[in-house]
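DM from R.C. (forwarded with permission)

"hey, sorry to bug you on a friday — could you get me a structure for this? deadline for the figure draft is monday and I only need the backbone to look sensible"
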Amino acid sequence: MLSPRRHPRLFAVLVCALAVLAARPADVPGGSGAGSEVARLYQDAALATERYEQGRSEAEAQRAEAQRLEGLLEQQRQEIAALHEDLGRIARAQYRDGGGLPLAAQMILADSPEELMRGQRAYSQADTAVNNAIAKSRRAEARLAADEAKARGAWQALEVRNAELAAMKRSIEQKLEEARQRLQGEANASAAAGSCRGAVRLDQPEMNFTNDWVAPVETYALSAAFGSGGARWANRHTGQDFAVPIGTPVRAVGAGTVVRTSCGGAFGMEIVLEHPGGYYTQYAHLASIAVEQGEQVRTGQWIGQSGTTGNSTGPHLHFEVRVTPQLGSGIDPVPWLAARGVSLG
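My reply, with the result:
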């Protein structure tokens, strides 16, 4: 567990950083419209979520520590009460054995001076031992109480700061949702006109992939599978669908060349890549395209953003693997990617 002393400084930095993110203007001079804004807010929202979850975990850890110390403190108090009871029992026993008599009477009644001294010494030692134990236990109780107060204070401070992080996270997510709607509106206009705008370049963070192949989106839920039936398809589904929000960065699954970009028809805005070995991949129903025909792309490069253009009933990425650039030559993308070290489970 992190030391409570580090939390205020840590959260001050996080709160300031997220405040900057939340205060970013909607339109950045020199930017590329809604697509660029969504890509930036997508990263900001991910950062805000990460920081919020980190703060929530640390608050839970501090809460657990405060509860642990509270339990120890209660145990210490019970031990003090037991010591008091022990001292009371010794005093009562001494009184019954003559401890309540004046010293002169005890001297007269005692069988011998040694017996008198032994009795007085035993009582004195027991009294001293119990009193010392009580004093030690009370010191421990005071330390535990101080530690509990510190842990509880740290937990409460973390809760307050986490509430601030949560508010900033909601603000960024609201901006992201508004930007997504603008992006989809622009995409719908392009798809209806059948004419793509120029490539909307995305400011992609540096990524180092250890594999030559990756999934087409980073975070997803698998929806319609290859070969499945449905009212939207004339025969069988020709690819694998990934349910993702509008504006999610779409990645090239491997290095290749852009052989087609288009904006009309059943697939809406789409990209087709050619890869070494004679395979092609298609990315359809996009909201923006970030590459040009003939361009070379690398593994994991952001080539566009997901959307719901064309014959689509909701935001998702339609992904195909083909043996020709044309529709009708598709193969199941799941085992194809699995053979290249990419599991979609």
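R.C.: lifesaver. Confidence is low (pLDDT under 50) at residues 1-32.
me: no worries. The two ends are 33 Å apart (CA to CA).
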